[in-house]
Automatic annotation (TrEMBL):
The gene is pdeM. Residues 28-121 form the Calcineurin-like phosphoesterase domain. Its EC number is 3.1.-.-. The keyword Nuclease applies. GO terms for molecular function: endonuclease activity; hydrolase activity; ligase activity. Keywords: Endonuclease, Hydrolase, Ligase, Nuclease. It is an enzyme of class 3 (hydrolase). This is Ligase-associated DNA damage response endonuclease PdeM.
Length: 216
């Protein structure tokens, strides 16, 4: 795993990981969004051939992040899971048992529709957005960011387009720090990207081959 990039922001130390997650040092929080676990299984259930290794790769990356940062809590700002139960959620249940001591908090997203008992059985604390922590808020959808409080959110799966010569272009996942909120990259490997067009006053960090780089 590539070394994370330190981004001092509003008197806080944020470590941006090329594995599509953010570590908030002062709060000892590993923060990420939009895993959409079980999405590949949902598509296969509908007869669409999607490789079964997608979710296993996501779980492996997440475990590596937990081992690297040793956070007090893992906070997911929405869409931890993609839909209703399927066979891949049993894989998550076994994965969760291996890290039983890790606190996990879910700020509910629009795809988090599993029964309340399922979250309790897997020791996931579910809270409604927005969640206030210190001088910041956590919410799934940027539209739900409360006015006057800087918010970390997800939902949009942000991507940034790099343009090269001969009309070549490449769209990459990114961290987007706008005026009022930060949109985290989608953690899940089986997710699309929505192109953002930042203003000059905004900050974007692209993710390429596991590394994080600031866009000038």
């Amino acid at each position: 795993m590539q070394a994370p990039l330190l981004f001092p922001f509003r008197n806080q130390r944020l470590w941006l990981s090329g594995q599509r997650a953010l570590f908030w040092e002062e709060q000892r929080i590993l923060l990420l969004s939009d895993l959409h676990l079980g999405k590949s299984g949902h598509f296969r259930k509908e007869g669409i051939a999607v490789p079964g290794a997608v979710m296993k790769q996501d779980m492996h990356r997440l475990l590596a992040l937990l081992q690297f940062f040793r956070p007090e809590q893992l906070v997911v700002v929405g869409d931890f899971f993609h839909s209703r139960a399927n066979i891949e959620l049993e894989l998550f249940r076994r994965w969760r048992a291996d890290i039983a001591g890790q606190r996990i908090v879910l700020v509910r997203g629009n795809h988090d529709i599993l029964p309340a008992d399922w979250y309790r059985e897997n020791e996931i604390e579910v809270v409604e957005e927005p969640l206030r922590i210190g001088d910041f808020c956590l919410a799934h959808d940027p539209a739900d960011a409360p006015p006057g409080v800087y918010t970390f959110c997800g939902h949009l799966h942000p991507g940034y387009v790099l343009n090269g010569i001969a009309r070549q272009s490449l769209r990459l996942p990114c961290f987007y720090f706008g005026k009022d909120y930060c949109i985290l990259p989608a953690f899940g490997g089986f997710t699309g990207l929505a192109t953002i067009r930042p203003q000059k006053s905004e900050t974007v960090f692209i993710i390429a081959e596991g590394s994080v780089m600031k866009v000038s």
